Amino acid sequence: MATPTPSHPTTERLTVMGAGLVGSLLSLYLAHRGHAVEVFERRGDPRRAGFQEGRSINLALSDRGWKALGGVGVANDIRQVGIPMSGRVMHDVHGNLTRQPYGHDGQAIYSVNRGHLNRRLLDLAEAQTGVTLHFGQQCTGIDLKTKELHLRDTATQQEHHEPYTRLFGTDGAFSAVRSALQRTDRFDYSQDFLDYGYKELTIAAGPGGAWQLEKNALHIWPRGQYLMIALPNLDGSFNATLFFPFEGPESFAALQTPADVTAFFDRVFPDAVPLMPALTEEFFAHPTGSLLTVKCFPWKHGDDVLLLGDAAHAIVPFYGQGMNAGFEDCTVLNALFDQHGDSAWDVIFAEFQAQRKPNNDAMADLALYNFVEMRDRVADPKFLLQKKIEAKISAQFPGQWVPLYSQVTFSDTPYAEAWAAGQRQDAIMARLMPHIQAEADYDQPEVQALVQQEMAARH
Ligand SMILES: Cc1cc2nc3c(=O)[nH]c(=O)nc-3n(C[C@H](O)[C@H](O)[C@H](O)COP(=O)(O)OP(=O)(O)OC[C@H]3O[C@@H](n4cnc5c(N)ncnc54)[C@H](O)[C@@H]3O)c2cc1C
Ligand SMILES: NC(=O)C1=CN([C@@H]2O[C@H](COP(=O)(O)OP(=O)(O)OC[C@H]3O[C@@H](n4cnc5c(N)ncnc54)[C@H](OP(=O)(O)O)[C@@H]3O)[C@@H](O)[C@H]2O)C=CC1
Ligand SMILES: Nc1ccccc1C(=O)C[C@H](N)C(=O)O
């Protein structure tokens, strides 16, 4: 796809802190608009040899993410290296499998490699006139009054100060830009850690790079209080993640030796163990990540600082929406520039946070909701029946009933609207399901009468 040409050239010099997923995409959007963009990133250049990758290897990319990538002409390119996952495959403790499609035929979320995506966005940003990338530059503080960044060169440990005119904080869940805003008057901030951590493990490729589990699916081992998931990689391996309590009888604290780990995995994930030859080594070599929700407000400081992505709204990963939400921030910001012109900073920043805050708050709730769904409800045959019935209602009333999962994943309906509609639909399902024991019951006249009655009452 051709790269869009800048439509609103200005001479404004902008600063982006953090060249992760959102920062690199944002830089590209800003440069396409004709701005000069200075990007500072704490880590080294991920495109150089010897770069140490972060923890999470692959991510689920869905419609909001694709839309944002499409806006800078990179969606097709990334689609080539994404693996479509059309549904969930649940593994029970005996290794029996159950399938649940995510949407209708042709709909899928995509497993993409985080490093690849980040490197590709950086390549494009660097190739764009006006973008300058500075790696190995850690923000240690910001003087909001004098508009100065405090940076540490991570190679020399030298501290230096750089002026900024307008600063975009895309420095992730533990943002230094946000820390500076936290010390301003009437800045609300909360962070909530889960009692769960996560550990990334590998399901190995089979001979000749074959996938040893169904390739086009997101695999889930739901175990009530905890779960393991696996997303496919292009090389035939899967990136598995164990979401597990920190403390308690079944917890990270309880697994202290390789023998503990082997015994536990043999008992609860028996079909996965033969596919994880490096299980015990990885379990002790890989870090245990923590999981948190960050909420804060305002996201802007005057008309010169704006937070986006995880810096503004870090969420737990269970819906696979954190990056997608951050990418959607870029789509929305770009639309506001189109609407108001490139120099209406105050209006744009104010509208941006007014639009995005309620939606990202809703997404934070949805992410916690999906944690319970993934670790527990997907193992319940009644839940799976409910999903099938919901698909039937949706097919019978096209456009009037869109399942919550589809609204979040396969649409750009604002998250808050999707969540509100999903809660209304959940209440209807709770009234219908006691009358339905099997899929065929849906076509019974008395059930159809109830469905018609519920649908009529909605309007
Ligand atoms: C286990 C896990 C699985 C996930 N799975 C998914 C998924 O499937 N789908 C999805 O949409 N989302 C997923 N997410 C969420 C996703 O990773 C984040 O939402 C996304 O990375 C946010 O992008 P960002 O650019 O805002 O932050 P980041 O990607 O964290 O980028 C921030 C950048 O800022 C840099 N930085 C940090 N501090 C400083 C500083 N002081 N100075 C300079 N630079 C700094 C960092 O080095 C980094 O490069 C997952 C998260 C986790 C933890
Ligand atoms: N919402 C959530 O639950 C989570 C979201 N994420 C998001 O995904 C992104 C990529 O993740 P990943 O590849 O794992 O990144 P990293 O593991 O590379 O983490 C990035 C940096 O964040 C800091 N950090 C990590 N955990 C904590 C913590 N508990 N308290 C304070 N600082 C911490 C560390 O900085 P230092 O080296 O200075 O200690 C670390 O180097 C993150 O940057 C974040 O935006 C990541 C984890 C959880
Ligand atoms: N990427 C993830 C990372 C961690 C936990 C879940 C996901 C998901 O994508 C879940 C998927 N959306 C699901 O509902 O089955």
Automatic annotation (TrEMBL):
UniProt-listed HAMAP family: Kynurenine_monooxygenase (MF_01971)
Record Gene3D superfamilies: FAD/NAD(P)-binding domain
SUPFAM superfamilies in alphabetical order: FAD/NAD(P)-binding domain (SSF51905)
Protein name per Swiss-Prot or TrEMBL: Kynurenine 3-monooxygenase
Keywords assigned: FAD, Flavoprotein, Monooxygenase, NADP, Oxidoreductase, Pyridine nucleotide biosynthesis
Cofactor(s) for this UniProt protein: FAD
Enzyme class: oxidoreductase
Family of the protein in this entry: Belongs to the aromatic-ring hydroxylase family. KMO subfamily.
FAD-binding domain residues: 16-183, 299-361
Phylogenetic classification of the source organism: Bacteria, Pseudomonadati, Bacteroidota, Cytophagia, Cytophagales
Pathway given in the UniProt record: Cofactor biosynthesis; NAD(+) biosynthesis; quinolinate from L-kynurenine: step 1/3
Catalytic reaction list: L-kynurenine + NADPH + O2 + H(+) = 3-hydroxy-L-kynurenine + NADP(+) + H2O
Function (record text): Catalyzes the hydroxylation of L-kynurenine (L-Kyn) to form 3-hydroxy-L-kynurenine (L-3OHKyn). Required for synthesis of quinolinic acid.
EC id: 1.14.13.9
